[in-house]
Design a protein that fits this description.
heterodimer; A: alpha/beta; six-stranded parallel β-sheet; 6 strands; about 30% helix; about 15% strand; B: mainly alpha; Na+/H+ antiporter like fold; Rossmann fold; 28 helices; binds flavin mononucleotide
Chain lengths: ~220, ~650
């Protein structure tokens, strides 16, 4: 299967893309950054925000409903705090149950083909740690290879993660508001097809220089 | 006998006709009663001299009212409000009374008379104001809270004022030592017995008084509880009501015997019982009596209003009324500023308390009895009180239509209220089922009110430090007393199936805003509860049974996670089935006759096994659907897993 990013055209209203944000945070009441990000997400038109821990607190998914939701959107986003270089557990369980054989892969018409997939994550460690010379040795993109490969196997277009580093001090250092604004900008650009997918695809993280990949807005 | 029945008929008919209409018009019930009295008295002339006798009986309603006021006064609540209570309330009563007394003195009246009139007018109408604030949803505003504090202080201060009034009489009109004038509500017979203490020396008398107060406090604290518990266990409702009445009447009698105010005594008894588990029950037992007696009291006041005076001295009466209201408003506005209320709250506070009130009538009657105020003056003053009460709804309308909107436009959105209470949860039934619920909620920091009809159970829970109240939780008045009107959730956890359905029905009808969670016995009961309006009903042993079924499968050696998956599948199958069958059941709940329902139940039972054990490779296999591995040939056929 080819990896060329053929743009997922929105079939929503007015040719816009509909965006599904699957949000996973197990202790939202203590969150400093994901809470505000989720609130902002819910306010963007054309975006469906799903709080997985609230909807399926026992990890018991209604697979039919989850799959129907995927079919109704053109962009799928996992939104989460980075836990042990990966997603919180519920997103893993969600993948294991929802991305069924015959639906997402090994199917005559893979259901997710051509959709866009990416992560929006926050990490406690500083950005400098996420490189070969840093104490984490790998970049954030490299650490998320399993997700990237998951997307590719399902025929989806993969974009690098929208990431906030040093998340534990973002609020007190006044970096949060700008990050939230950037996030809303990315969502709106994706929705309105103003984000240059080809330019964004090779990046390590999506939000390096947004002006270079977003037109107008 | 005929005469008595006739009078009862006239009074009741007037009340039944006038009060609902007044309520509809937003005037409140107190005004309704007054209007009823005006109708049968001055307007139609149906009643005459007997109003005096009836008024004496009706005054007992005031004694009951003070008992209820006392019952509301949890010492803790009182302590939290102390600043406002003493500051706002004390200054309001004091400043208003002194200002009016000064005016009276300037007019050349005796100072005692002036002060008495000042105290009479300082009182506002608790009944009208609380009810109106409630109806208009203003109780939780800062202005509403401040008003409540002042009203509470007034209600309490009535006790002190009653004790003070005898001393205000002109010395020459004093007939007996003031203490021996057994205060209000006494019949001549009781008055006679009050002389029992007349022969005692001062120190002996003091001892008797102290003894009586001790009897009320200690008896209320130590004796009444075991007594009520004993009576509650007999499960005879009317006997409980009778004993509640007995408590009030007995306290009043004791006080009259030693020459103290019966109102003071019952107030004390109320405070002593405010912390007891029988508080809600006592309140709902006494309240109807108090309501009727107070109603009759207001009717007699209305009937006694002398419209002759109004037509003769129209200008004076109207001037006095407006003067009193203006003065009260001014005092309140100053206090509101002093206590830093917002502009909108300031006006609500000042306008809502500007009238004179029902305690004014009571104090006035007492003043006349003690020769402090002469009858003709009292009649004019009654008229002023009544008029000011009649004008109160107009002031509320003034506030709502003119003042509130203007303030809102001026300064952006109104400041949010301080929220100092969690939405309360009322739990009916605190057996094994309710206890677990309550423990979880309380541990999570949720405020709960627990009701049960088993006194021994309540007793035990209280010993364990769980806030709970005795009472037949299916009684509407008790549910009301427990605060269902303000609660967010009502949890029906009782084990009586029919009662539970009735309770849900009642709550759904009366408190549509409350969400109802109910304990169901079985599926039929669950449907009944759902139809009655429960938002959520759960079968009481469903979870445990399923849990034990799962334990059995594990005992048999099945992998625990496989068991977990099957249990989840069972749950899903069950809830889909239940949801699907409700409509059929609703057509005819009798399963024996409902053939369609039988067919669906058979099918539901039949599909369970499929749901749990279907072929692993089938997409519709429920339990094995998740974590289905790719086909063995998948990696060979495609290049993607390489
Ligand atoms: C269980 C756990 C594991 C974590 N693992 C990592 C990690 O591997 N790398 C990292 O940079 N931060 C890690 N963190 C820090 C979180 O990413 C950080 O607390 C989060 O992004 C803050 O977002 P919040 O304020 O919305 O909760 C971890 C935190 C927890 C609780």
């Amino acid at each position: 299967m080819s990896n060329a990013p053929e743009s997922a055209r929105g079939s929503g209203e007015g040719g816009r893309r509909r965006i599904l944000v699957l949000f996973a945070h197990p202790s939202l009441e203590r969150s400093e950054v994901n809470g505000p990000l989720a609130e902002a997400t819910a306010r963007v038109e054309g975006v469906t925000l799903v709080d997985l821990y609230a909807e399926s607190p026992t990890f018991d998914f209604n697979v039919d409903r989850e799959q129907a939701r995927l079919l109704a959107h053109e962009v799928i986003c996992f939104m989460y705090p980075l836990y042990w270089y990966s997603t919180p557990a519920i997103l893993k369980e969600w993948q294991d149950l929802v991305l069924e054989r015959g639906f997402a892969y090994d199917a005559a018409a893979p259901a997710l083909q051509g959709k866009i997939f990416f992560s929006a994550l926050t990490a406690g460690g500083p950005e400098a740690a996420y490189c070969a010379a840093g104490y984490n040795h790998l970049t954030i993109r490299e650490l998320l290879y399993p997700l990237e490969q998951m997307a590719r196997l399902c025929g989806m277009i993969y974009l690098p993660p929208f990431a906030l580093f040093g998340a534990r001090t973002a609020l007190e250092e006044g970096r949060l508001a700008g990050h939230v604004a950037d996030w809303v900008r990315v969502l709106e650009a994706l929705r309105d097809d103003r984000l240059d997918l080809a330019a964004a695809a090779p990046r390590t993280k999506l939000n390096d220089d947004l002006n270079a990949i977003i037109r107008g807005g | 006998m005929d005469g008595m029945l006739l009078h009862a008929f006239v009074y009741l008919a007037a009340a039944v006709l006038a009060v609902p209409v007044a309520n509809r018009l937003g005037l409140g019930s107190v005004l309704g009663y007054l209007i009823a009295g005006i109708l049968i008295g001055p307007a139609l002339g149906l009643v005459g001299s007997e109003t005096k006798d009836i008024q004496q009986i009706a005054e007992f309603g005031v004694v009951m009212m003070l008992f209820l006021v006392g019952l509301e006064l949890e010492p803790k609540l009182l302590w939290e409000m102390r600043g406002r209570l003493l500051g706002l309330g004390g200054l309001q009563v004091g400043l208003t009374a002194v200002a009016i007394a000064a005016f009276a003195l300037w007019q050349g009246l005796y100072w005692g008379l002036g002060l008495a009139i000042g105290l009479v007018f300082a009182m506002s109408s608790t009944a009208i104001v609380i009810q109106t604030l409630n109806e208009k949803g203003l109780t939780k505003t800062e202005g509403g809270r401040a008003s409540f504090a002042v009203l509470l202080f007034q209600d309490i201060s009535v006790i002190a004022v009653l004790a003070l009034i005898p001393f205000l009489a002109r010395p020459e009109s004093l007939r007996l030592a003031p203490w021996l004038n057994a205060p209000m509500g006494q019949s001549p017979a009781v008055h006679g017995t009050a002389r029992l203490v007349a022969g005692l020396p001062d120190w002996g008398y003091a001892l008797v008084v102290l003894g009586a107060v001790a009897v009320v406090v200690l008896g209320g604290h130590y004796l009444s509880r075991p007594l009520f518990r004993y009576i509650a266990e007999s499960r005879l409702r009317e006997v409980f009501t009778a004993s509640a009445l007995l408590l009030v009447v007995g306290t009043a009698l004791l006080m009259t015997l030693v020459g103290l105010s019966p109102a003071l005594g019952t107030f004390l008894a109320g405070v002593v019982l405010a912390n007891s588990e029988f508080r809600h029950e006592l309140r709902s037992d006494i309240e109807p009596f108090k309501g009727i007696l107070m109603g009759i009291f207001f009717i007699t006041v209305g009937a006694g209003i002398d419209f002759g005076i109004l037509s003769r001295d129209f200008v004076t009466v109207l001037g006095l009324t407006l003067g009193v209201m203006g003065l009260k408003t001014a005092v309140l506005l100053v206090l509101a500023r002093l206590f830093r209320l917002q502009a909108g709250d300031r006006w609500l506070f000042a306008l809502s308390l500007a009238q004179a009130g029902e305690f004014g009538f009571v104090l006035l009657g007492f003043c006349v009895q003690n020769g402090v105020v002469q009858g003709n003056i009292a009649r004019t003053l009654s008229l002023v009180i009544a008029l000011s009460m009649l004008l109160t709804p107009a002031l509320f309308i003034l506030y709502e239509r003119l003042i509130a909107p203007r303030l809102r436009n001026g300064s952006g959105p109104p400041a949010a209220d301080t929220i100092d209470e969690e939405g309360t949860v009322v739990i009916a039934g605190i057996g094994r089922f309710g206890q677990i619920i309550n423990r979880l909620l309380v541990a999570a920091g949720v405020d709960t009110v627990v009701l049960d009809h088993r006194a021994d159970q309540i007793d035990l829970l209280r010993k364990l430090g769980i806030k709970s109240y005795y009472g037949e939780a299916s009684r509407p008045d008790l549910l009301h007393a427990a605060g269902l009107g303000r609660a967010r959730l009502f949890i029906v956890a009782i084990d009586d199936r029919d009662r539970a359905v009735e309770m849900v029905e009642y709550c759904r009808r009366t408190y549509p805003q409350v969400r109802i969670l109910a304990r169901a016995y079985d599926v039929s009961h669950l449907y009944l509860l759902k139809r009655a309006g429960a938002d959520l009903a759960m079968r009481e042993v469903y979870d445990t049974s399923l849990g034990m079924g799962a334990a059995a499968l594990r005992e048999l050696g099945m992998h625990p996670y496989k068991v977990e998956r099957m249990t989840r599948a069972f749950r899903r199958h069950e809830s889909e089935g239940l949801a699907g069958m409700y409509d059929l059941w609703d057509e005819d709940p009798d399963i024996a006759r409902n053939l369609d329902l039988q067919a669906v139940i058979r099918k539901h039972v039949g599909t369970l096994q499929d749901a749990l054990n279907a072929d692993r490779m089938q997409l519709h296999d429920r339990t094995e659907r998740g974590w289905t591995p790719p086909s063995r040939g998948f990696s060979r056929e495609s290049d993607e897993w390489q």
